[in-house]
Design goal:
heterotrimer, A mainly alpha (350), B mainly alpha (313), C alpha/beta (513), A: ABC transporter involved in vitamin B12 uptake, BtuC, 73% helix, C: alpha/beta, Rossmann fold, 23 strands, transmembrane transporter activity (chain A), transmembrane (chain A)
Chain lengths: 350, 313, 513
C-alpha cells in the first residue's frame, strides 16, 4: 500500500475535510459519552442548547469565541511560515498582564476611553510580540528549535504573572486573593449586548481575521512568509529575506496572542489572575489546524470550539458527564483534521 | 553560606535528587529512543499525564503497584502507536501531531479521572511505592541512604539507562534503530522495513514516557490531579538535546536537573525575600539555557523529522 | 553460460503513468550488462522492482532459476542480489563498519559480533581491492570511498549479482575508470553485474551487452562489440535530435568580473582566489566534477552570499552590496542548479513562482501590496512565449514536468532582459527535446549581447555552447581555453587539476588577440 499525492485536490474535498474531521471527533467523543452511561445524541443536543438555546448561551459562546479567534490567528500566521509558535498561552498571559500594568499609570486612566483602549491594546500586543521574538532570536542565532522554547516559556510566563499579581501588581482590595489591580474604567471594552459579557473585542477579532487574510493573500509580506514556510531554500534563492520575514511573522503572531490576552482582560474579567485562560493559547493551535491555516476559516473553527466548551459546561451539569469531554473533542478533532487534510491531498494506492 | 552547606550536606537533599530525577530519566530515555529512530515525539507531556492517571487509577481500583506501572507503559505505548501511525506511514507533521497527542491524551486523562472520581474536593490517595533499602549497601554512611534507599521504580530507571545504552550501541537492533534515524533509505536497502522499526521504537519510547508519568502518582506523590506533569515532558525534550542523544548523558542531564530542582526547593525555605515563583521558573529557564549551550554542538540524527516514503527522496 | 537472473515481462504502472511495460531482461554469470536509457526511461523503476522496493503489476523475477517473492528486499538480498544506489544509502554519522553491519545479523540478538564483522569486511576489501578504513565515520569519506562502502555492503551480504544505479554520476573520470576496472575484476571472481547509465562512452567501454530502454520498454539489445555510440544514441532517444549550432561570438565589453574571490563553503566546496571575466555576447563555460565549488560559485554570482574577500565588478563597477535583489536589479539573471529545491516552490501558484524574485520591483508591487493583475499578465506572457505546457497561471507549479518548469524559469529570467546570465546545470535531468530548447534560449540570450556564465557537469553541453571553457577544481578556476581547442583529453586534464597544457593555450590565445 502506498500513498500518492493527488494532482488536483478538489475544492469539494478541501471543504469536506474539516467537516469530516469534526464529525469523526464527535463520533469518538460520543463513544466516550456512551461509555460513561449517557446518550450521546442527547448530550450533543444539550451542548447545542447550552451554546445557542438562550440569549445568555449565545452571548457566552461569542464571548468565548473572541480570544479563540485571536489565538487561532496567531498560530495560523506562524504555522504558515513554519514558525512553530506554541507559546500562545504565555503570550496571552503577558499581553493581559501588560494591560493591567499599563492601567496602573494614572495618566492612562485619565485618557478618553477610545485612546486608553487603543494604547492598552497596543501594549498587550507589543508584549506578546516580545515574548515570541526571544525564542525566534534563539532559533536564528543559535539554531534552537522554537517548539520547545516557546513551550517552556509558557510556564515561565504564567509564573511571572503569578509573581506580579502576588507582588507589585497585587490588588490590595481583593481580600488577599491573588489578582492584579483592575484595569481602569476608561480602558474597559464597551459591551455589545446589555446584561451580558459580550464585548467589542469580538469585532476586533473579526476585523483582525480579515486583516490577516488580506495580509497573507494580497501583500508582499504574505507572499514572502508563505514562500519562507513552504521552501526556505527556494525562497532565499528568490531573494526573500528569511530572517526579516520570520521576525515580521513573529511580531504578527505574538502580537495577536498578546492582543487576545489584552482583550480578554479588558472585555471580560477586568483584572488578571492565573486562571484567566482555560488553555486559549493551546486551543489556538487546534483552531488554526482545523481552519487549515485559513484566517477566515479560523472564525468558524473558533466558534466550533467555543460551542463545545460553553455547551459542555451546561451539558455536564445535566448529565454528570465531565466537561472535559469538550477538551477531548477539540483535541481529537485536531488529530482527525490532520488525517483529513492528508486524505484530501493523497490517494491510497495498492 | 553555611545555609548552603547545610543543604548540600544533607542526606535528604541528595536522596531527593534521585527521586526527582526518576520521571525525567524515564521520559528523557523515551524521547531519546523516538528521536534516535527519527521521530520527534511532542506527545510526551500528554503521555506522561496519561501514564500518571492510568497508573494511579489501576492501583486505586485495587491493582498492584507494578500492575499500575505496567498499565501506564501499555497506555503510553498505545498513544505512541497513534503518534507513530500518523507520523510514520502517513508522514504528517511531527510537531503538530505530537501536540495533538499531548492535548488529546491529557484531556482524555482528566475526563477518565473525573469519571472515576466524580466529586472529591481533595484527590483520593493510594499507598505508593516505599523506599527499598538494598541490604548492606544502604548501610554505607551518606552514600547508602542516598543511592540505595530509593523506591523500586528508581532502580528500574537506572537499570534501563544501562539497558538502553547497551541496546543502542551493542546490539543489531540498536544499530538498525540508530541507522533509521540517520538514513531510513539505508535501512530499507538492507532489507529492514524502517516503517515498522519506527513504529515499534516509538511505541517502546512512549511506554517509557508512560512509566515516567506513573512514577509521579505511584512513588513521588500518591494521588493524581490535573496539570500535575507541569511541563516535565517538555523538559525531557530539552534534556535529550543536552544529552546529545546518548543514554548515559541523559542520566547525567536528568540528575543535574533534579539537583537544581531539589536545591531550589530547599533554598526557598531558607532564603527570605525572594519570591518563590522565581525559584519555580528555574527549571524551565535552565532547560532553555541547556538548549542554547548544546544547540551548536549537537549531532542531530540526520533523518529527524523527515518522513520516509518509499521511492521518494 | 549460466543464467543467473531473469526478468520476465515486467509491467509497472504509477497511476496513469506506465513506468515499465512488458520488460524482459536476463543476465548471465560473469557478464556485465549495461541498462541504457534517458532520464525517465524506467531504468531505476525496473531495478527497484528487481530489488523488491516496488511490486510489479505483472511479470516475474527469477534469480538462479528460483522466483523471487515480489516486494521483499530481504528476499532479494538473501538470493544474492546487491544494489548500489545512485544516492548513497549511507548514514553519515555512523562508521563504515556500522553502515556495513546494519541488517546483516538477526535483529533480536543480545550482542552483535563486531569482531567477526570487521574481519569479514577487511577480507572483502582486500580481495576486491576496495580500500577503506572500517572505523572511519562516513561523513569524513570522499565520494569515491562512499561508493566503495556501498559496494562492500552488497558484497558483505554475499551478493553474486550486483546492480549499480548510475555509478559514475558523482565520480571523476579517473575514479570512474578505476571503478570499472574493479568491476571487471569482480566478474572474474564470479560476480555478475548490471549497471544503469545514460552515458554512452562508459557503456561502450565497460559492458559486454547493452539493453536499451525507452519510455519503459526494451527497444533494443546489442552485444557491445557489435554496436556503436551513434547507433545507441539513436536507439536511446528514438530519433535524431538536432541541438542548435553555436554561431561565432562577437565579445564586447566586460560585464562581470571577479577578482580574487574567496568564499567559505555554503553547502559545497569553498572558493579560493577565483578570478574571471565575462564579456558581452560570449558564453564562459565552467566544467568540473561535482562538488568542486560549482554550487558555491553559482550562489556567489547569483547574489545568495557576498564574497568573504575579493571584489565582484558588474559593468566595471564594484558592487556596494551583493544580495539577490541587488544582483537582479544589476541585470543578473539566474537559472538555479536545482529546479525543485531552489528554483520553484512547488505548492505556490505558477504566477507567484514567476514573480517572486522580482516582487520588490515596481512592476509587481506598490507599497507592499502585490499587483496581482500585472503579475498574472506577466506570467501569462511567459507561459505563451516560452510554450510552458500544462501550466495555468493559478495552478500549482509542482504539477509541471521538469522541462516545462525549466521553461518557466527561463521565461521569468529572460523576460526581465538580463545582461548577465548565470546558468547552473541548466539541462540536468531533462530529455533531449527539452535540452535543445534550453540551449536555443541560452544562445539567443548570448546573441542579444548578454554574457552567459554556464556552469555544467555535462561536457558535451559546455563544448557545444561555450566560447571559452574553464575548469573548477577544489574551488579554484583553471585558465580559459577557447572551445575550438577543447577535446576530451585536455578537458579531462583540466578537471583533474593538471593545467600546464591549458596555461600554454591561454597564453597563446592571449597572444593571438
Amino acid at each position: 500500500m502506498r500513498f500518492e499525492r493527488r494532482d488536483h485536490p478538489s475544492r469539494a474535498l478541501t471543504i469536506a475535510a474539516p467537516i469530516g474531521a469534526v464529525l469523526a471527533a464527535l463520533i469518538v467523543a460520543g463513544l466516550l459519552i456512551a461509555i460513561a452511561g449517557a446518550n450521546p445524541i442527547r448530550a450533543y443536543g444539550l451542548i447545542l442548547k447550552g451554546a445557542f438555546g438562550s440569549r445568555l448561551g449565545i452571548s457566552e459562546t461569542l464571548t468565548r469565541t473572541t480570544p479563540l479567534i485571536l489565538t487561532g490567528l496567531a498560530a495560523a500566521v506562524a504555522f504558515r511560515a513554519r514558525l512553530w509558535n506554541i507559546g500562545g498561552e504565555g503570550q496571552f498571559y503577558l499581553g493581559a498582564l501588560a494591560v493591567a500594568a499599563f492601567g496602573m499609570i494614572p495618566a492612562i486612566g485619565a485618557l478618553p476611553a477610545p485612546l486608553a483602549i487603543l494604547l492598552c491594546l497596543i501594549a498587550g500586543a507589543v508584549v506578546g510580540m516580545i515574548l515570541l521574538l526571544v525564542p525566534l532570536g534563539l532559533r536564528l542565532k543559535f539554531g534552537v528549535d522554537e517548539v520547545v522554547t516557546t513551550l517552556l516559556l509558557n510556564f515561565v510566563a504564567v509564573l511571572f504573572v503569578s509573581l506580579m499579581i502576588e507582588g507589585a501588581m497585587k490588588d490590595p482590595l481583593a481580600f488577599g486573593w491573588p489578582q492584579s489591580v483592575p484595569v481602569p474604567e476608561a480602558a474597559e471594552l464597551p459591551k455589545l449586548l446589555a446584561r451580558s459579557r459580550l464585548h467589542a473585542g469580538l469585532l476586533i477579532a473579526l476585523v483582525m481575521a480579515v486583516v490577516v487574510w488580506w495580509l497573507q493573500s494580497r501583500t508582499v509580506f504574505g507572499m514572502r512568509s508563505r514562500a519562507a514556510g513552504l521552501n526556505p531554500r527556494a525562497a532565499a534563492f528568490a531573494g526573500v529575506p528569511l530572517g526579516r520575514t520570520l521576525i515580521a511573522v513573529a511580531c504578527l503572531s505574538g502580537g495577536l496572542a498578546g492582543l487576545a490576552g489584552a482583550i480578554e482582560v479588558m472585555g471580560v474579567k477586568g483584572y488578571v489572575t492565573t486562571d484567566l485562560s482555560p488553555n486559549y493559547g493551546y486551543s489556538g493551535i487546534v483552531i488554526a489546524m482545523l481552519a487549515n491555516l485559513n484566517p477566515i476559516g479560523v472564525i468558524a473553527a473558533a466558534l466550533f470550539s467555543a460551542v463545545m466548551f460553553v455547551g459542555a459546561d451546561s451539558m455536564s451539569r445535566a448529565l454528570s458527564i465531565p466537561s472535559y469531554i469538550a477538551d477531548v473533542t477539540v483535541a481529537m478533532s485536531l488529530l482527525t483534521m490532520l488525517v483529513a487534510i492528508f486524505l484530501a491531498q493523497y490517494r491510497i494506492r495498492r | 553560606m553555611s545555609v548552603l552547606l547545610d543543604i548540600l550536606s544533607s542526606v535528604g537533599m541528595w536522596e531527593a535528587v534521585l527521586r526527582i530525577a526518576t520521571p525525567l530519566i524515564l521520559g528523557t530515555l523515551g524521547v531519546l529512543l523516538c528521536e534516535r529512530v527519527g521521530v520527534l515525539n511532542l506527545g510526551i507531556e500528554g503521555i506522561m499525564t496519561f501514564g500518571a492517571m492510568v497508573g494511579w487509577l489501576t492501583v486505586y481500583s485495587g491493582g498492584d503497584l507494578w500492575v499500575g506501572i505496567l498499565a501506564a507503559a501499555a497506555g503510553g505505548a498505545a498513544f505512541g502507536f497513534l503518534h507513530a501511525l500518523l507520523t510514520v506511514p502517513l508522514g504528517l507533521s511531527q510537531h503538530v501531531t505530537g501536540l495533538g497527542i499531548t492535548l488529546f491524551a491529557s484531556s482524555f486523562s482528566y475526563y477518565v479521572f473525573r469519571l472515576a472520581v466524580p466529586t472529591a474536593s481533595s484527590p483520593p490517595t493510594v499507598e505508593p511505592f516505599r523506599p527499598l533499602a538494598v541490604p548492606v549497601l544502604s548501610d554505607i554512611p551518606f552514600i547508602g541512604p542516598v543511592l540505595f534507599n530509593q523506591t523500586a521504580p528508581t532502580y528500574m530507571a537506572l537499570i534501563l539507562v544501562a539497558v538502553l545504552a547497551w541496546g543502542l550501541y551493542r546490539t543489531p537492533l540498536g544499530l538498525a534503530i540508530r541507522m533509521t534515524g540517520e538514513n531510513p533509505h539505508a535501512v530499507d536497502a538492507q532489507g529492514i522495513d524502517p516503517i515498522w522499526l519506527r513504529i515499534g521504537t516509538i511505541m517502546a519510547g512512549s511506554a517509557l514516557m508512560g512509566m515516567g508519568g506513573a512514577f509521579l502518582t505511584l512513588a513521588a506523590f500518591n494521588s493524581f490531579f490535573p496539570t500535575m506533569v507541569q511541563g516535565r515532558g517538555w523538559i525531557c525534550v530539552a534534556l535529550v538535546v543536552f544529552a546529545l542523544w546518548r543514554p548515559g548523558r541523559a542520566l547525567l542531564g536528568a540528575l543535574l536537573f533534579a539537583f537544581f530542582d531539589a536545591f531550589q526547593l530547599r533554598l526557598q525555605t531558607v532564603v527570605e525575600g525572594v519570591p518563590y515563583q522565581l525559584f519555580l521558573m528555574l527549571p524551565y529557564i535552565l532547560s532553555i539555557v541547556a538548549l542554547i549551550v548544546m544547540a551548536r554542538r549537537a549531532r542531530v540524527p540526520q533523518a529527524l523529522m523527515q518522513p520516509y516514503r518509499r521511492g521518494e527522496r | 553460460m549460466t543464467r543467473v537472473l531473469e526478468l520476465d515481462s515486467i509491467t509497472k504502472r504509477f497511476g496513469h503513468v506506465t513506468a515499465n511495460e512488458d520488460v524482459s531482461l536476463h543476465l548471465d554469470r560473469g557478464e556485465i550488462v549495461a541498462l541504457l536509457g534517458e532520464n525517465g526511461a524506467g531504468k531505476t523503476t525496473l531495478m527497484s522492482i528487481l530489488f523488491g522496493h516496488y511490486t510489479a503489476d505483472e511479470g516475474t523475477v527469477r534469480v538462479e532459476g528460483a522466483e523471487l517473492p515480489p516486494g521483499k528486499s530481504r528476499a532479494a538480498i538473501r538470493a544474492g542480489v546487491g544494489m548500489v544506489h545512485q544516492h548513497f544509502a549511507l548514514a553519515p554519522n555512523l562508521t563504515v563498519l556500522e553502515n556495513v553491519l546494519t541488517g546483516t545479523e538477526p535483529l533480536w540478538k543480545f550482542r552483535s559480533n563486531r569482531a567477526a564483522g570487521r574481519a569479514k569486511l577487511v577480507e572483502l576489501s582486500r580481495k576486491f581491492g576496495l580500500k577503506v578504513d572500517p572505523d572511519a565515520r562516513v561523513s569524513d569519506l570522499s565520494v569515491g570511498e562512499c561508493q566503495r562502502v556501498e559496494i562492500l555492503k552488497a558484497l558483505y551480504n554475499d551478493a553474486r549479482i550486483l546492480i549499480l544505479d548510475e555509478p559514475t554520476a558523482v565520480l571523476t573520470a579517473q575514479e570512474a575508470d578505476s571503478l570499472f576496472a574493479t568491476l571487471r575484476q569482480m566478474t572474474e571472481n564470479g560476480l555478475s553485474l548490471i549497471f544503469i547509465s545514460h552515458k554512452l562512452h562508459e557503456v561502450m567501454s565497460a559492458s559486454d551487452r547493452v539493453v536499451v530502454l525507452r519510455r519503459g520498454r526494451v527497444v533494443a539489445e546489442r552485444r557491445t562489440a557489435e554496436t556503436s555510440k551513434e547507433e545507441l544514441a539513436e536507439l536511446m532517444v528514438g530519433r535524431k535530435v538536432q541541438r542548435p549550432e553555436r554561431p561565432p561570438a562577437t565579445p564586447g565589453k566586460v560585464l562581470l568580473e571577479g577578482v580574487d574571490l574567496a568564499l567559505g563553503g555554503k553547502g559545497g566546496a569553498s572558493l579560493h582566489g577565483v578570478s574571471f571575466r565575462l564579456r558581452a555576447g560570449e558564453t564562459l563555460g565552467i566544467i568540473g566534477v561535482s562538488g568542486n565549488g560549482q554550487t558555491t560559485l553559482a550562489g556567489l554570482v547569483s547574489g545568495l552570499y557576498p564574497p568573504d574577500s575579493g571584489t565582484l565588478l558588474i559593468d566595471g563597477q564594484e558592487v556596494p552590496r551583493h544580495d539577490v535583489p541587488h544582483a537582479i536589479a544589476a541585470g543578473i539573471g539566474r537559472i538555479p542548479e536545482d529546479r525543485n529545491a531552489e528554483g520553484t516552490i512547488g505548492d505556490m501558484a505558477t504566477w507567484e513562482n514567476a514573480v517572486l524574485e522580482r516582487i520588490w520591483s515596481e512592476d509587481f508591487s506598490a507599497r507592499g501590496v502585490v499587483k496581482r493583475a500585472a503579475a498574472r499578465a506577466a506570467t501569462e506572457e511567459i507561459i505563451k512565449g516560452y510554450d510552458v505546457r500544462g501550466a495555468s497561471v493559478d495552478g500549482r507549479i509542482r504539477l509541471l514536468s521538469g522541462g516545462n518548469m525549466q521553461k518557466l524559469i527561463l521565461g521569468r529570467v529572460l523576460n526581465a532582459g538580463p545582461s548577465i546570465l548565470v546558468a547552473a546545470q541548466p539541462s540536468r535531468g531533462l530529455d533531449e527535446g527539452a535540452i535543445a530548447g534550453v540551449h536555443e534560449r541560452l544562445l539567443e540570450a548570448r546573441g542579444r549581447g548578454a554574457g552567459v556564465l554556464l556552469i555544467s557537469e555535462d561536457l558535451d553541453e559546455v563544448i557545444a555552447l561555450s566560447d571559452r571553457i574553464r575548469a573548477i577544481v577544489n574551488g579554484r578556476l583553471s585558465p580559459a581555453i577557447p572551445a575550438e581547442r577543447a577535446d576530451a583529453r585536455l578537458l579531462g586534464l583540466m578537471m583533474a587539476g593538471d593545467w600546464t597544457a591549458a596555461e600554454a593555450i591561454e597564453a597563446e590565445d592571449a597572444h593571438a588577440l
